[in-house]
Amino acid sequence: MGRLDVSLDDKFDIAKHQVLLNGTQALVRLMIAQRARDKSKGWNTAGYVTGYRGSPLGAVDFQMKRAAKALDRANITFQEGLNEDLAATALWGAQQAELRGEGLYDGVFGLWYGKGPGVDRSGDVMRHVNMA
After folding, report:
1. What ranges do the domains of the chain cover?
2. Which of 19, 33, 93, 97 has its CA 20 to 30 A from that of 129?
3. Phi, psi (deg, nearest 5) at residue 108
4. From residue 94, how far is each of 50, 97, 107 by CA, in Å?
């Protein structure tokens, strides 16, 4: 078996199948992979990532900022929320334009993150999102 040529820079390159990354970097790659999957089906989509920057979820905001160039190339926007409620509402709003025919994309896929109490408090937003 030959030597495998792997670089830390490969982690957000969807063409690379063996990569070195941690869990929060995997979330970044997941978003990029979703965009690549949509594009392969001919769908013009965009991604939106938001959440509470105080979330204990292993520095997901830090990883999203570090991957800004890769996210931008994949048409994915990262924007920290002031709190979980506003972040969830922003993601919901990003997806609403497509429902009314006013959007620029075939759809918007998203990732929302938060901490326990914020998840509890954001229940109304989640309930309304699922009814839309």
Report:
1. 16-131
2. 33
3. -125, 120
4. 11, 6, 9
Is residue 78 within a helix (H) or strand (E), and if so which, with residue range? strand 76-81
Assess contact for 105 and 69: CB atoms under 8 A: no
- Compute CA distances 93 → 51, 69, 116, whole Å: 14, 24, 22
Percent of the chain as helix, strand, coil, to the nearest 5: 50, 15, 35
Task: Show the CA angle centred on residue 78, arms to residues 74 and 17, nearest 5°.
Answer: 40
Going residue by residue through the chain, which has 132 residues, state the pLDDT in tens, using 9 for 90 and above.
Answer: 577 777 777 899 999 888 889 999 999 999 999 999 999 999 999 999 999 887 667 789 999 999 999 999 999 999 999 888 889 889 988 888 777 777 899 999 999 988 776 666 667 776 766 666
For residue 47, the cross-strand partners are 76, 109
Flag whether the pTM goes above 0.70.
yes
Distance from C-alpha of 7 to C-alpha of 21, rounded to nearest angstrom = 10
What is the C-alpha separation between 92 and 110, in angstroms, rounded? 9
**Total residues belonging to the chain:** 132
